[in-house]
Amino acid sequence: MSELLDRLKGNVNEAAGKAKRDSDDPETRAKGAAQEIKGKAQQVKASLKAELSSDTK
């Protein structure tokens, strides 16, 4: 269940980051890029959790 939550958070952060990257403000674009990377990291975390849980079954 926690990997589902991580995947959801990752999707939200990626989408918000992509939206911020379209801004005219350079600071907002930088924050958007960082948020998108955070979202991708959350996706990887979710994948790892799913792999680890399937290996223990």
Give a description of the structure.
By secondary structure, the protein is mainly α. It has two helices and no strands. The protein has helices at residues 2-21, 26-55. Helix 1 runs antiparallel to helix 2. The longest helix is centred in the last third of the chain and has 30 residues, at 26-55. The protein starts with a helix and ends with a helix. This is CsbD family protein. Residues 1-57 are annotated as: Disordered. Residues 17-30 have a biased composition (Basic and acidic residues).
> What portion of residues belong to β-strands?
under 5%
Count of beta strands: 0
Radius of gyration: 14 Å
Shape: rod-shaped
Kindly, what is the distance between the CA atoms of the first and last residues, rounded to a whole number of angstroms? 15 Å
Given as residue ranges, the uncertain stretches (5+ residues, pLDDT < 50) are none
**Number of helical regions:** 2
Mean pLDDT, as a whole number?
Answer: 93
Fraction in helix: over 70%
Structural class: mainly alpha
Order of helices and strands: HH
For the sheet with most strands, the description reads:
none
Write out key terms for the chains shown:
CsbD family protein, 88% helix, YjbJ_sf, 57 residues
